[in-house]
Amino acid sequence: MDKDALTIGDLGAATDTKVETIRYYERIGIMPAPKRSDGNYRMYRAEHVEQLRFIRRSRALGFNLDQVRELLSLSDNRNRSCEAVDEIARENLADIDRKMGDLKVLRRELAALLHQCQRGAIAECRIIKAIARK
Fold first, then answer.
1. How far are the Cα atoms of 95, 101, 103 from residue 109, in angstroms, in the given order?
2. Which of 97, 94, 89, 14 shows the shortest CA–CA distance to 56?
3. CB 11 within 8 A of CB 49
4. Least C-beta-crowded within 10 Å: which of 61, 105, 128, 134?
């Protein structure tokens, strides 16, 4: 094996990514499959580390896999206007705002149910009854 190559375990450790996640990203084409050694081991390079860190950070910022794929594609063309990137980021921000609104509604509903709790028997539990109605 090439002395500069990383194993999949090394790549995972360098990026705090599970091996199965790396394999999944390769299967769906968000990461290119690396070259293989004569023993059929994956051989990763520094560019794989950079790309996987980009993917992980994008996911941490809430971008879905299709958006990450598009951001990766756009990042390959350094001279292009960043307007397309801005649009993807705006879409993601709007989605985050929507989710935050949904979570606020859920929080109010659950807080109201807890406030009604009389700490009696499960048969009379208002939380269980409210869940069963939905």
1. 21, 13, 10
2. 14
3. yes
4. 134
Per 3-state DSSP, what percentage of the chain is helix, strand, and coil (rounded to 5)? 65, 5, 30
C-alpha 20: how far from its chain's center? 14
Please report the domains of the chain, with CATH numbers, ordered by start residue. Answer: 1-80 (1.10.1660.10)
Q: Which amino acid is at 73?
A: S
Tokens representing residue 126 in the block: 């208002």
Half-sphere exposure (CA, 13 Å, Cβ side) for 17? 26
Q: What is the pLDDT along the chain (134 residues), one digit of tens a residue?
A: 577 899 999 999 999 999 999 999 999 999 998 999 888 888 999 999 999 999 999 999 999 999 999 999 999 888 888 999 999 999 999 999 999 999 999 999 999 988 887 777 877 788 888 888 86
- The answer to whether 26 and 16 have CB atoms below 8 angstroms apart is no
